[in-house]
Design brief:
CATH superfamily of the largest domain in chain A: Periplasmic binding protein-like II
Structural class of chain B: mainly alpha
Shape of chain B: globular
Number of helices of chain A: 20
Shape of chain A: globular
Largest sheet of chain A: 7 strands, mixed
Oligomer: heterodimer
CATH superfamily of the largest domain in chain B: MetI-like
Structural class of chain A: alpha/beta
Radius of gyration of chain B: 25 Å
Largest interface: A-B, 43 and 38 residues
Order of helices and strands of chain B: EHEEHHHHHHHHHHH
Radius of gyration of chain A: 31 Å
Strand content of chain A: 5-15%
Number of helices of chain B: 12
Strand order of the largest sheet of chain B: 2-3
Largest sheet of chain B: 2 strands, antiparallel
Number of strands of chain A: 14
Number of domains of chain A: 2
């Protein structure tokens, strides 16, 4: 037994018998050695074996994008959209893989918070090879050179950029770089969907191409009935995102901001008139439901339930309406405002290739395929998108009897005067601040002039940081 | 009678035990290191930098803290959070205490009641928030319907859509959910009060109020202290209910500090200011806990201490 002062520690032990200290210690030492080896065999080893066995199925579980490097020719494509859209896309991808047997495409479907996830994937260097991006979120990624410049590919394969609507390409142009980061897939603007049956029931004439703001209010008033158990409203109301009320600002002759001067233009009289009119729909004319009245229900749900006579929305509503609407519906352009024009915003979305892709040739083949006339025609047939290629749009939007909407060509007509939405790089933060300051306006508590006067310094601070970049 | 003896352990044995201890603790320690300690210190560094997740962080010193402290929206969030923590904290503790005292008696169905009160605590916040979102609907929700049927209100309450009612909606949900845990702790605490004290008080003719104030409450003070701190810290960390019910609420009214921090980090991609908010929150919670620790010396009685 070692001397006490050599030991670094001691342990309290319950003395079980009255043995002499010496033999007790020695026996304890042997016993411990025996016990520890038994311990190893009986307790630890099975646990280690168990852990090893468990890790085998787990290792096969997740195949990260890093794994795709091991299998040649596998690329990842990310997209947003409903299940219908994704099913349509999967058919297209099957066709692509049949034509390109050496490439396999893994589809990453992100139904919600698309850009939040993409941002994190890019930050972690595991961005998908091909990404669907829209013009609102494009600037920040382009600024950090997240996308490959496609000009060399376009030139090599003789892709005809002139077939695309100029506004589609314009939406992705940046002032500080000539790079082409995206090939556009679709354009999106806004029209007024209306319930033809409700119009006839209340004896209101249908809107035509030149209807004005006062005429819209008149029709909406005739279509609004509030009852105890259920109500019908004339017009939909979206307080966010800004895309829904900007058309009223533009149609009144105003604008959001001046890019070159970093100036907020919403405080100008024309813009204020537009904002005032929009808030009046709820608070003065009472033709649109207040937030407490509509509650959790989404505007398109109310339209489908025939509780809403007119709905401002984009082309994306067409497939749902074709499938689920039990009434006749049609579209009309937004009404003409005080400026004498009816202007809506036009956004575009397209496919980009990640700058860190490991297989740029396969990625380019996919992008070229997805933006080809054949693919765009297939995607546009369901009514989901306005294809970015003019040739395809003209064929798809030719009026067909029996196919709703009867006036589908309004989608293309409104493109002529549409304004490509230009947004500051920090769009998320800017639009959040803007929405916050305008909320009292939509609730009828403040005038737009007052609300924007208060918010102007903070908003302009964000816009000025735009120029610093 | 067994006698405890201090037996010296040889050095080789000490080392062997240390080796096994470290080996067996390693998985847990590794997890803590990777998911808690390193991010906490990383966050400290990020609070002094400018970063938007793309590119590399760059040092900006105290600029983030200055910007955050000058931001009126931060102070609005702080105000909402303080109100939220105070109201939910007080109500959670008081309601839990009285419910625990009620559940401490041997009544029929006692177990059933205890289960009923604890059940909300173990349900996932996500599903609960979604369902409560529908219950709170002004036109079609069950709450307004019930209140109107009972003739307690005339017009429907715009629960989540009004600046004054939305914070209460979130608080009510939280209280409903978290009180169960406090009840459990209080029940355990109540059962440690020696019956002899209560019997002696009854013999002396003490009223129920007296018994509560002079016996139950002092004997329960360690439990109260624990529950108080836990409720406070939990209150400051409220996030899921806001994220699912109101997303910051009408005009920033339910934008609690953790949710505002999340928005800054993952919707505006302002990692620097978000980390600064996180550390300010840390300082606040630390200060409050220290205050409670000091008060403990005055107000909390432990059985082995002489009052």
């Amino acid at each position: 037994m070692k001397a006490v002062k050599d030991n670094t520690g001691s342990r309290e032990l319950t003395q079980l018998g009255s043995k002499k200290n010496n033999s007790f210690c020695l026996r304890r030492k042997d016993a411990f050695k025996q016990a520890s080896s038994l311990f190893l065999m009986r307790a630890i080893l099975p646990q280690i074996l168990g852990l090893l066995l468990l890790s085998i199925p787990l290792s096969g579980c997740q195949s990260t994008p890093q794994d795709t490097k091991k299998q040649p020719g596998t690329i990842t494509l990310s997209t947003w959209g409903s299940q219908q859209e994704v099913d349509g896309l999967k058919l297209l991808l099957k066709r692509f893989e049949a034509n390109n047997p050496d490439v396999h495409v893994r589809l990453m479907h992100i139904p919600e918070n698309y850009f939040q996830k993409i941002h994190l994937l890019v930050a972690g260097d595991i961005a998908p090879d091909v990404m669907l991006v829209n013009s609102l979120n494009y600037p920040i990624y382009a600024h950090h050179e997240v996308f490959k410049d496609l000009r060399s590919f376009v030139k090599k394969d003789h892709v005809d950029l002139k077939d695309f609507y100029p506004k589609a390409l314009q939406a992705f142009q940046r002032s500080d770089s000539q790079a082409l980061g995206i090939l556009p897939r679709d354009l999106s603007n806004l029209v007024v969907y209306y319930n033809v049956d409700l119009f006839h029931k209340d004896g209101v004439s249908e809107p035509d191409a030149d209807w004005t703001w006062p005429q819209m209010v008149e029709k909406a008033k005739a279509l609004t009935h509030r009852g105890k158990t259920s109500s019908q409203y004339g017009m939909s109301f979206f307080s966010k995102p800004p895309l829904y009320w900007m058309p009223f600002v533009w149609s009144a002759g105003g604008d959001l901001w001046n890019r070159d001067k970093g100036q907020l233009l919403l405080t100008q009289p024309a813009s204020l008139e537009g904002l005032h009119f929009y808030s009046d729909l709820r608070n003065r004319f009472h033709v649109a439901p207040t937030r407490a009245e509509s509650g959790d229900a989404v505007m398109s749900q109310l339209f489908l339930q025939q509780k809403l006579a007119m709905l401002i929305s984009g082309r994306w509503s067409v497939p749902v309406l074709r499938e689920q609407a039990k009434f006749r519906w049609d579209v009309a352009p937004l009404p003409i405002g005080p400026s004498g024009h009816s202007r809506v915003g036009v956004d575009a979305s397209g496919y980009a290739i990640s700058a860190k892709t490991h297989d740029q040739n396969a990625s380019w083949k996919l992008v070229k395929f997805l933006t080809s006339s054949a693919s765009l025609r297939a995607m546009a047939q369901s009514g989901l998108i306005i294809p970015a290629r003019e040739s395809v749009a003209q064929t798809v939007f030719r009026p067909q009897p029996g196919r709703l909407p009867a006036h589908g060509f309004y989608f293309l007509d409104t493109l002529k005067e549409a304004v490509p939405t230009s947004v500051p790089t920090r769009w998320n933060e800017f639009s959040e601040l803007l929405q916050l300051s305008l909320e009292p306006v939509w609730e009828g508590q403040k005038s737009p002039a007052q609300a924007l006067r208060e918010a102007k310094p903070a908003l302009e601070k964000l816009l000025r940081q735009e120029r610093k970049k | 009678m067994r006698k405890s003896v201090q037996v010296p352990i040889p050095e080789w044995q000490q080392r062997e035990e240390t080796f096994w201890a470290i080996l067996l603790l390693a998985p847990c320690l590794l997890g803590l290191l990777i998911f808690t300690y390193i991010p906490v210190f990383g966050s400290l560094g990020l609070s002094f930098s400018y970063w938007n997740l793309l590119g590399t962080p760059s040092w900006v010193g105290f600029e983030n803290y200055a910007a955050v402290l000058q931001d009126p929206l931060f102070w609005k969030s702080m105000q909402s959070t303080v109100w939220f923590v105070t109201v939910s904290g007080i109500l959670e503790v008081v309601i839990a205490l009285f419910l625990a005292m009620a559940l401490n008696r041997a009544i029929k169905g006692q177990t059933l009641f205890r289960i009923a009160y604890f059940l909300p605590f173990i349900t996932p916040m996500v599903s609960v928030s979604l369902v409560w979102g529908w219950l709170y609907d002004p036109a079609y929700g069950a709450f307004n319907w019930l209140l109107q049927q009972a003739h307690l209100i005339q017009a429907p309450i715009p629960w989540l859509y009004n600046v004054s009612t939305a914070p209460w909606a979130v608080v009510i949900l939280r209280i409903w959910k978290d009180t169960g845990y406090n009840i459990l702790i209080f029940l355990a605490g109540l059962q440690t009060i020696p019956l002899s004290l209560t019997e002696a008080a009854l013999l002396d003719g003490a009223s129920a109020y007296r018994r509560f104030w002079n016996i139950t409450l002092p004997m329960l003070s360690p439990t109260l202290f624990f529950v108080g701190i836990m409720t406070l810290i939990n209150g400051f960390q409220a996030f899921d209910s806001v994220y699912l019910l109101t997303q910051g609420g009408p005009a920033h009214s339910t934008e609690l500090l953790v949710y505002w921090m999340f928005k800054n980090a993952f919707e505006f991609y302002k990692i620097g200011p978000a980390s600064a908010i996180a550390y300010l929150l840390f300082i606040i919670i630390l200060a409050l806990t220290l205050v409670q620790w000091q008060l403990r010396k005055r107000w909390v009685l432990y059985e082995d201490e002489t009052a």
